[in-house]
Automatic annotation (TrEMBL):
Any GO MF annotation of the entry: DNA-binding transcription factor activity
Record-given protein name: Crp/Fnr family transcriptional regulator
Pfam families: cNMP_binding (PF00027)
Database matches in PROSITE patterns: CNMP_BINDING_3 (PS50042)
GO cellular component: cytosol
Source organism of the structure: Prevotella koreensis
Length: 198
């Protein structure tokens, strides 16, 4: 049990380093909020119709967020270690999600339950800052992806993804990368070949 506590402390420190500065007491509070979870490859973290109640911090693994449209799976987002994932609309409206989350590898996640996080943030400025910065990061990521598919050529979309999410491009199946970049797997293969020749 001791090792698990140490791990949670390490995660609390990582989050504090990334999003806010914290005293030992504040780290204790943040640590008390974190809930460790483990998912096997292919296991669903969140299914369609469930309500998202957590912000998830990925300690190890690869997570994909996707939805169904006209019977096809469309990839909305993929993330690896050190990143946050959530279904923001479901989280804040407290309504069932259309967005699903799947572990593409064996994945270890630390969940921040929204209700508990908001409760402690009310009494703690540094935890408020951490919460706000997490939300800012999530909104920026959504905007970056929207702009990527809206304004960039297929070639530039792939190049930018390689630059911004190198681990995702190395580890995620090509079919999901193609879907995320809103191109067919065939187009992605052509784009990858020409990028390698550059």
């Amino acid at each position: 049990m001791k090792e698990m506590t140490k791990t949670i402390r390490d995660i609390a420190r990582e989050l504090a380093r990334k999003y806010s500065t914290m005293t030992h007491e504040e780290l204790d509070i943040l640590q008390s909020v974190l809930v460790p979870m483990k998912f096997a490859k292919g296991e669903m973290i969140l299914k369609e119709g469930e309500t998202c109640k957590h912000i998830y911090y990925i300690d190890k693994g690869l997570v994909r967020q996707f939805y169904f449209k006209n019977g096809k799976q469309l990839t909305e987002h993929m993330a690896v270690e050190g990143n946050i994932v959530m279904c923001i609309e479901s989280l804040f409206r407290e309504e069932p999600t259309k967005l699903q989350m799947e572990a593409l590898e064996t994945t270890v996640i630390y969940a921040l339950p929204k209700a508990r996080l908001e409760e402690v943030a009310m009494h703690n400025v540094n935890i408020q800052i951490l919460y706000r910065k997490i939300l800012e990061e999530s909104l920026i990521q959504s905007q970056v992806h929207a702009d990527l598919v809206r304004f960039e050529s297929a070639q530039d979309r792939y190049r930018k993804m390689c630059k911004q999410n190198q681990q995702v491009t190395l580890r995620a199946p090509l079919v999901y990368i193609a879907s995320y970049l809103q191109m067919t797997p065939e187009t992605l293969s052509r784009v990858r070949s020409s990028t390698l020749l550059d």
